[in-house]
């Protein structure tokens, strides 16, 4: 029962920000090309021992956001299991629904507000370490620096000792069974709380670790300036390689860069066998750490049997755009003893430029042989390499 899961609460309405955001919920606001809840997920997934994540969305958004999450994980696999739950009327209702979505083996859970997108890996690691050492509940907090007074009816009733005060943050870590018990009690006895520690501390000791001033919550319009930090455009390079042997269906024409090559040998391939576009797609995936085309378009999937490789390239282009990467240049080389490709070079370059939405000078195509060496020299197959340059806002 030691599995640790994170719970990303993204079910709030964000009424205090509604006018400033044009009605968009704050958990969906973009920062550096991704919604706030996905930034939280990235940080959680990097924590050692994190087994999975539960995302809690408003009921009316849950199905749509689940579809988007599938694409996020396809584009940027965080390496953890995940699930979606529907939020409730109150924060504590959303947490209770999130608890119901956890697997039985989840022994500990970290509950986090997606409106805190700047949470650090250090805080998460310290929470897990405290739980490992026996804490049943643990929260991050920072000292209160202002003098705090208790006021009623416009009159100061008491000046509180700020040495004993702390501002509490999320994520908050708990034994899953203890947090469930606290929520059951809250439901049965009508507790109204603003965080999970307020429940758990009625049942067990809650320990405190140092929080961070940078772990701020996006709450009021002024906080939106934090999301408008200057972005840096970073060049990124991807490299792709693909190979196909000759043979296969005699009626399948050779295609390179989406251009039919009359008289070219047939190739053995699951899709249309366009070795150049396959190398190009892999190179594009490399610009944003998107894996390889075998992961996204497996040759075991009958949907891709004889598939148009231009379609695969367009799908990868869409993935790159979602990852915040803009392809700006491609340098391509085909290596084959046969057929002779010089007569088709200009058309191939133009067609690839069209597929990528680039100007002609942004795509370079070359063809060469290996002087009759190796399998290409022996006319047994064909291979291609691609180098793609992208620009990504960080």
Number of helices: 11
Give the name of the CATH architecture of the largest domain. Alpha-Beta Complex
The total count of strands amounts to: 18
Helix and strand composition category: alpha/beta
Mean pLDDT: 91
Shape category = elongated
- Strand fraction band? 25-35%
CATH class of the largest domain: Alpha Beta
As for the number of domains, it is 2
What is the helix content? 25-40%
Can you offer a commentary on this structure?
The model has no long low-confidence stretch (mean pLDDT 91). Helices cover 28% and strands 28% of the residues. It has 394 residues and is α/β, with parallel strands linked by helices. It has two domains: 3-228, Spore Coat Polysaccharide Biosynthesis Protein SpsA, Chain A (Alpha-Beta Complex); 233-393, 2-C-methyl-D-erythritol 2,4-cyclodiphosphate synthase (60s Ribosomal Protein L30, Chain: A), CATH 3.30.1330.50. Residues 236-394 are annotated as: 2-C-methyl-D-erythritol 2,4-cyclodiphosphate synthase.
Quick description:
Keywords: Isoprene biosynthesis, Lyase, Metal-binding, Multifunctional enzyme, Nucleotidyltransferase, Transferase. The protein is an alpha/beta fold and 394 residues long.
Describe the secondary structure blueprint for this structure.
Layout: E1 3-9, E2 30-31, E3 34-35, H1 36-45, E4 50-57, H2 62-75, E5 81-86, H3 91-100, E6 106-113, H4 121-132, E7 137-143, E8 149-152, E9 155-159, E10 166-168, E11 172-175, H5 176-189, H6 196-200, E12 207-210, E13 233-245, E14 254-256, E15 259-261, H7 275-286, H8 293-296, H9 309-322, E16 325-335, H10 345-356, E17 363-368, H11 374-377, E18 381-393
Parallel strand pairs: 1-4, 1-6, 4-5, 7-12, 16-17
Antiparallel strand pairs: 2-3, 6-11, 7-10, 7-11, 8-9, 13-18, 14-15, 16-18
Helix pairs in contact: 7-9
């Amino acid at each position: 029962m030691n599995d640790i899961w994170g719970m990303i609460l993204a079910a709030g309405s964000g009424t205090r920000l509604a006018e400033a955001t044009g009605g968009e919920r704050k958990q969906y606001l973009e920062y550096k090309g991704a919604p706030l809840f996905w930034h939280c997920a990235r940080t959680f997934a990097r924590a050692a021992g994190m087994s999975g994540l539960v995302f809690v969305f408003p009921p009316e958004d849950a199905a749509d956001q689940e579809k988007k999450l599938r694409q996020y994980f396809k584009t940027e696999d965080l390496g953890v299991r995940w699930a979606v739950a529907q939020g409730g009327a109150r924060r504590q209702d959303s947490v209770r629904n999130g608890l119901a979505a956890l697997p039985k083996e989840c022994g500990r859970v970290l509950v986090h507000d997606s409106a805190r997108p700047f949470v650090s890996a250090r805080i998460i690691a310290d929470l897990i370490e405290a739980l490992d050492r026996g804490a049943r509940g643990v929260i991050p907090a920072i000292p209160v620096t202002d003098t705090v007074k208790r006021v009623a009816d416009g009159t100061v009733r008491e000046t509180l000792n700020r040495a004993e005060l702390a501002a509490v943050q999320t994520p908050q870590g708990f034994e899953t069974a203890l947090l469930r018990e606290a929520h059951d009690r809250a439901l049965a006895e009508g507790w109204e709380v603003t965080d999970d520690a307020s429940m758990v501390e009625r049942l067990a000791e809650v320990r405190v670790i140092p929080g961070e001033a940078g772990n701020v919550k996006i709450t009021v319009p002024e906080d939106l300036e934090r999301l408008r930090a200057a972005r840096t455009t970073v060049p990124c390079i991807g490299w792709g390689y693909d190979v196909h042997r000759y043979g296969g269906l005699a009626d399948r024409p050779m295609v390179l860069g989406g251009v039919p090559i009359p008289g070219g040998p047939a190739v053995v391939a699951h899709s249309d066998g366009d070795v150049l576009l396959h190398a190009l797609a892999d190179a594009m995936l490399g610009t944003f750490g998107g894996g390889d085309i075998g992961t996204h378009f497996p040759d075991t999937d009958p949907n891709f049997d004889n598939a148009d490789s231009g379609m695969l390239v367009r799908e990868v282009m869409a993935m790159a755009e979602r990852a915040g990467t803009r392809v700006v240049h491609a340098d391509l080389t085909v290596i084959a003893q046969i057929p002779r490709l010089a007569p088709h070079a200009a058309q191939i370059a133009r067609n690839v430029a069209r597929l990528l939405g680039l100007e002609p000078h942004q795509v370079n195509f070359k063809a060469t042989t290996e002087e009759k060496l190796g399998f290409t020299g022996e006319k047994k197959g064909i291979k291609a390499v691609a180098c793609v340059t992208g620009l990504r806002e960080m």
